[in-house]
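Continuing the series of single-chain predictions for the mutant panel. This is the parent chain; the variants come on the following pages.
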Amino acid sequence: MKVRSIYTLMLVATLSLAGCHQKVINDDMPDNEKLEVLDLKVEKHPNDAAIRAQRAQVLLNLGRTKEALLDIGKAVSIEPKNADYLMLQGDIYFALGDIAQSYKSLSEAESIRPESIEVQLKEGEISFYSRDYERSMRHLTAVTEREPENRTALFMKGFIYKEQGDTANAITLLRRVCDIYPDYEPAFEELGILYSTHNIPLAEEYLNTALRLEPSNTNAMYALAMYYQNIDALDQAESLYRKIIEINPSSSDAWHNLGYMELFRYRDYEKAIEYFTKAAEADETNIAALTNRGCAYELSNNYAAARADFNAALAIDPNYQPAIEGLKRIK
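Parent structure:
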């Protein structure tokens, strides 16, 4: 009996040791498993800032942002001069949509670590996504002055120039990103979209490169289809719209553009109505789909349905001229 008790104690000790080994976190461990381990650690060491910050990151990864904010807030209260914790706090506030607090946390991190490119880049990104382009450009320029080939900073600066209508500088920076980073698909996409907007033939090259790098990129696909449509390469455009719909059957714009080609290229009013209906079902605010379906009904001599569609379009925007003109024609 005594021997059995000793054996039992040895077994318990062995299992306990095995349990301890299982509590070691590694990079390959799923976040939910990491959280289980960190919950135990926090329970045992509630005032350990590093453990709190680690759990905050895992909670953020899992989308549990409010809980993450509590943990990182505790970590920052314990170590208020830790720039890494402040940067993570900025990320969490941004995930919660609190741009002001996010920027405040990052500014505090910058005051502690003014030489940090990472902090400047995060401040530039936060300002970029909140469309404070002047502030964003200031931070991004601080990054490129020290790292002239920083991919993220160059790309965002090019995008800002594009948004501000400075096409020349946008093209210069985006082409530079493409030259330095030939596998960076977002730069090829944005540059291709920029060229397609101005019907510049280079659009085809850059958008096709974006699609080679990311074959399911429907944004690049749509921009290329629009470019083909604008230069009257309608077969290529139609093929791409149909491919977009295969990937995303709820693409309102692709359905609309197919309907547009059925209406004005093939004069197949029934098919046009079908496609415009799918576009309107995918996005009930697609005013162009409603108006053009009204035109298709009008050309089919179904004036009651045409009138209903024109009025539906004007309910979205009372000043939408194509719908106003449509009503005038059938009165």
